[in-house]
Design a protein that fits this description.
By secondary structure, the chain is an alpha+beta fold. The chain is built from two helices and six strands; from the N terminus they run αββαββββ. Helices cover 39% and strands 24% of the residues.
């Protein structure tokens, strides 16, 4: 019975030794993995291989070994192709990145401003043209009042003017103003001397 117990203990010891050896191997494997992870973490902390890398401005798609610079590159599955960055908050400071919504807002504001300038310019042409349409007094000592309208590229204007010849027929004085569909007023005056 004693020999059976000793034999059983020997088998248990052998089994434990095998388990200890297996655990030692697992520990060694874990140590290798931990060391690799520590190296990877260190490389990432230095801006090395990872989704965001330090880079050189002259060659941003090539990792620079983690040397800190003021230049960063996003890296995807193919380092030679651009990476799309999603879920970007609106930029606030001058040095922040902008998102597409902000960019569209700027483009929309610019389009609206250009559209306003275009309408005002067209209306201004109509205002000047309406003044050009005004008639004037024809004979010495006469005065006249005239009205004119003009249309240009969807905009319109109404002009009113007065004119007068001097009694000796040497001077013609004219004054006019126009109001266009963009609420702009154009004013003009002239004096003509004839001999």
């Amino acid at each position: 019975a004693l020999s059976n117990g000793i034999a059983a203990n020997s088998q248990g010891i052998a089994s434990n030794a095998a388990g200890i050896a297996q655990n030692a191997g697992d520990i060694a494997d874990n140590r290798v993995a931990i060391n690799k992870n520590a190296g990877d973490i260190n490389l990432l902390n230095r801006g090395g291989a990872g989704p965001v890398q330090y880079s050189n401005p002259d060659n941003p798609t090539v990792p620079n070994g983690g040397k800190p610079t003021n230049d960063l590159t996003l890296v995807g599955a193919d380092s030679t192709k651009p990476v799309t960055l999603h879920n970007v908050a609106p930029g606030r400071a001058n040095t922040d990145a902008v998102n597409v919504a902000q960019l569209k807002g700027v483009a929309g504001n610019l389009y609206n401003a250009l559209d306003d300038v275009s309408k005002e310019g067209k209306a201004g042409v109509a205002g000047s043209s309406a003044i050009a349409m005004l008639g004037h007094a024809r004979n010495s000592g006469e005065s006249a009042v005239s009205a004119g309208v003009a249309f240009h590229e969807g905009e319109a204007a109404l002009a009113v003017g007065v004119s007068a010849w001097s009694d000796n027929g040497r001077w013609l004085l004219k004054g006019a103003l126009s109001q266009d569909t963009q609420s702009q007023t154009t004013v003009g005056a002239s004096a003509t001397y004839s001999w």
